[in-house]
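User: Predict the structure for this protein chain, please.
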Amino acid sequence: MSKRAVLEVIALDVEDAVAARAGGADRLELVTDMAADGLTPSAATVRAIRAAVDIDVRVMLRLADGFAAGDVARLVRVAGELREAGADQFVLGFLDADGDVDLAAVERLAAVLEGCRWTFHRAIDRAADRAALRKRLADFPGLDTYLTAGAAGGVDEGLPVLVAEGRRQGEPGYEQQLLVGGGLRLEHVPKLLDAGIDGFHIGGAARPSGWDGPVSADAVARWRAVLGDAA
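Assistant: Here is the predicted structure, written as structure tokens:
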């Protein structure tokens, strides 16, 4: 029996979280400051959302725009505070100046996130060699998902890469779930499902009024209807 496709929705606050849950989202990506493409939210926001909804919540670990880790010691402290606030799933991803994965930063965070599941986010789309990045992270504890558009320019550009990687899922280095996001539109979904991809991530698509407006339960429900109950 095929499994249900995962629909993850970006949430900024409790109102977003409640609407996404009502529309049929399976999981939230909790961030703040979308002008910087999503930064780490406050511990207070994490507590409020954990109290408001009963679906999975992945919390962003990113303190500044871009894909450099920056102050790793501060990231480690923040991750600990977020865990104390109830966070048990996370999103992170860091590259060095050469476009390779910043293993030192990822290792330090993975240590404080022991026992948590986490996503390596769209830093993979800016990597110098995405296959090499996946190989280096293949057995990293807790890593179960890659959020990717297949290319830095978004899903339109990256669709061939996504389809190729979707067909490789389960092979060595390709065990993690592909969560497709970054310019994702409903018309992309049939081809992605056909490639075996069963993770979908939406932000602006869930907000008819743009980022200045809230998540719409109706918009999320349209995505849930297209994805159906199985992938």
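The chain has a mean pLDDT of 95.
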